[in-house]
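Issue 218. Parser rejects a valid record. Input:
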Amino acid sequence: MGITVKEALKIWPLTLGQVIAGKNGLDREVTSVSVLEIPKETKWFKGGELQISAFYTIANDVESQLEVLNNLNKSNCSGLVLCHIGHWLKSVPQKLIQLANKINFPVIIVPEHIAYIDIITPITDAILNKKKQGINYDLETIHKMANILLDNKNIDHIIYSLSKSLNKSVLFFNIKNECLTTGNNQISEKLINEIKESILTNVNRFIDKNEYIIITSQLTGISILLVPVIINTKYYGTIAILNVSNLKNIDMMKIAESKYACGLAVIENIRLNELRSSVILNYYTDLIQWNFSNEIQAMQKASTMNLNVSRISLILTIEIFKSYIHSNKINNFDLQAKINEIYNYVIEKIKTEKSINYIMTLNNKIIILINDCGNDTKTITYAQRLGNRLINSIQIYFNAPVAIGIGNYQTSISKIKNSYHESLLAIKIGNALFNKSHCTNFQIVEILSLLFEGIDTRQASSAIKKLFEPLERYDAENNSALTLTLKALINCNFKTSLVAEKLFIHRNTVLQRKNKIIELLQFDPEEFPYRLLYELATILEKMVD
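Output the parser choked on:
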C-alpha cells in the first residue's frame, strides 16, 4: 500500500516541482523513494519506487538516459524526479520527454536548491501514514527517525538518537573504516579496533549480500551487530550496535530507519562537499584569469569561503608533452584521465608542503598556486626545487614526459594572472629548447619571450621557409636530406658525431652534407651571426608548431 504520484505532487517540496512528461502515468503507485546512483542497474528494484537522480554520471549521454527511463518503466518504478538541473544535467533532452510521454512514465523536475533528503523524508512519511492501519509497528518511533532526516541532522545526531532509543551503545564507521561517532558513549580504543578488524573481514560480504552480521567480542564477550549502510549497492559505512542479545522487532525497524538515515546523510555530505569544491575551483579559475573588477572584490569573495589567498605570489604549471600525446594517439578522454591520475599523485606527494595554497586542473594542465616564502628569491628557489622533484617522480611513476613552467614572483593578487600566463610561456619556450622533460623558470627565458610574444605565425613560417629554402629545393630535386641534417646539427650544437648517431649515418656522410650546405648557402651556418639566425629560426619553428 502506498500513495500515487499525483498525491505525492501535493506534498512539499514536490509542490514546487513540475511534471514535464508522462502526465498520463500520475496514477502509478509509490511504495518507496530511492536514490538512483547506478542508473543502468535494475536488478535491485522491487517496483513502486519513486526514483531520484541528478543523472550526473550520464549527464552528457542522451542514449543512456533513454535506456535508464525504459529500464525504470520495465521495473515498474512509479516515476523519476530530476534534481539540480543546470548543475550536471544542463537541460532535459527532448528525446527523453518524448519517450516518457510515449510510455506514460512521469518525469518531474524540482528547483536546483532542493536536496534529495527534502524529497525522501516527507514522501516516505506519507507512505508510512498510509500503511499505518495495515502494519502493526510503532509509527511514533518511525516518525521520530524520519524527523531526524527532516531536521537535516548529521550522523552524530542519528547515532545518538538510535543509541538512546535502543538503550545501547552504537557506533558508526565510515567507508574508510574510521569511527566517526560513538553516540556519546565511552568505548575503549581496543574494542573500537576489534570492531574495525571485523568490518574489514566482512566488508565483501556486506557489499555482495547486504547482510547484518553478529560477532562476539573476544575482549568483552558481548555480542555486536554490524549493520552495513548500503544504498543501491553502494557502501557508505557500518553501524555497530553493542550487546544485541535481546533486540525486538521494533528495535530492528529502528535500526533499519537509522541505517537509511545514515546513508542519506553521507550522500548529502558528499553532494555538499562536491558543490563546495566546485565553487572553490571556480573562484581560483577566476583568480588566475582575473575575472574580478578589483582586488577588494576578489578578497571579499575569498573571505566568504574562508580562503586565504593574500599570500599567493607565484604559479607553477604542469603539462604533458604534446609530442607524447600525439605519438601515443591519446584521445581527449584518456588525456583527462591521465591528467587526473597525475593530479592525484601530485596532491599526495606535496600534501605536507606548507607553501602550497591550492592545486587545480584547467585545460588539461595541473596548476599549483604557491604562497610567498619570504621574498622573491626564496619563493622562486622553492618553486624550482619543487618542479625538479615533481618532474623526476612523475617520469618514474607514470613514464610520461612532462613540462613544468614557473611564472614570475608577484606582489599583488591582481597580477597572479601574469604569473599564470608566464608559466604557460615558460612551458612553450622550454618545449622549443629541450627535447625532454624540463622545469623552466620564466625568469630565465624571458628574453626569448620578448622576441616571440605576439608574433605573426604566418609571417614567421614564411621567414623560416625562406631561410631553409635553398636546402629544401635541393632536397626535393635530389632526394637528399640537407635540411634535416642542418636542423640536427643545430639541435646537437654542431657536434658531428652526435648527429651521425641520431640520424644513423656515418660521420663522414655528415661532413659531406655539411660541406654541401655551406656551398648552397654560400656561408657557414655554424659561424656567427648565421648560427644565431638558424638557432632562433629552429626555436621559433617549434613554437609556431
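Fixed in the parser; the record now loads. DSSP finds 19 helices and 17 strands in the chain.
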